[in-house]
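Exam revision sheet. Question 4 asks you to relate a sequence to its structure. Input first:
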Amino acid sequence: MASLTHQFVGLKCPQISRTRIIHSNNKNLINPIIIHTKMQKVVCKATAVAITNAQTKERLKLKEMFEEAYERCRIAPMEGVAFTVEDFHSALEKYDFDSEIGTKVKGTVFKVDANGAFVDITAKSSAYLPVQEASIHNIKHVEEAGIFPGMREEFVVIGENEADDSLVLSLRSIQYDLAWERCRQLQAEDVVVKGKVVSANKGGVVALVEGLRGFIPFSQISSKSTAEELLGRELPLKFVEVDQEQTRLVLSNRKAMADSQTQLGIGSVVLGTVQSLKPYGAFIDIGGINGLLHVSQISHDRVSDIATLLQPGDTLKVMILSHDRERGRVSLSTKKLEPTPGDMIRNPKLVFEKAEEMAQTFRQRIAQAEAMARADILRFPPESGLTLNSDGILGPLTSELPAEGLDLGEVFPAEES
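Answer key, structure tokens:
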């Protein structure tokens, strides 16, 4: 069709030349001018008809093409398309996420301003982190919390801005939960922490610990300082109660100071309360300090099940075997208090009645061992029943000599006979 059109393109009807007009009075002769003119008209009409036919055919062909394409879209719209419907849904799932309150999302900070930070969370609109939600601590600018463009972090959705449908994010909520988890861990380990006193009320003072506000009753403060004197001070503290659901965080300065204030002598007998049982022993509270009564130190006889002898809340007498102040560990024993092996299993009441007597015997054995170790240096025979303490006083191993010992400085030199 296109070739046919090109055949007639450029054809022109030539103008009739006046110089070629021939006048003749002979009516029988055919006027060549008239013939030439008629031929030109025929050629022009043929050209116009041919062009019109070609355009019509072209339109028909285009119409057929559009009709075929429409029919394919109606019957098989995905025919010949590499990107399937499954691929489309997969792409939506990749960039779509649950925007409900409490949902955690990953995001990248791309801009900060005086009031917070803009975060890209691959959603249809950006999210915003207000400065008051950027940290568990009070800050005036997000940069104080180390938030800069390019930082990628996990956030939690806490709301939605109705003006532009953008999400409101928080880091503070995540840090808040982590702080409570940390406090529970520190309580379980029974460690001493530092807390800064920030306010006071009638019942006590409030201190910041791990970013949380904890209450210290006046009864749990070891010093006699007033609330005003404690403001701004850092106190050693231990956890008394950690309850996130009730938002209760109770602390004790008195328990924290017990390690330094209480002198636990090796071999001394103290009264304790069973706090908890473990497969390897029992934890005993001895005046604010947790000590371990190892299963091997309960009795000379083998103890297969601690729960058959002890239960949380039981009160008993124990003897201190060792006290590691640096590590905060106290080792206890009831085994050393048994009059005869196995009494702790058969008759624990007798063990507690004889506790001080058996402890005294244990301390004498310790003293004898120390005396024998120093005998060679001091040249005192162990059989003499004497030992030298750190103050240079010779003390007795038996009850016949004065309990305060003998001061060697008052012993006069022997006179020659």
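Marking note for examiners. The two ends are 157 Å apart (CA to CA).
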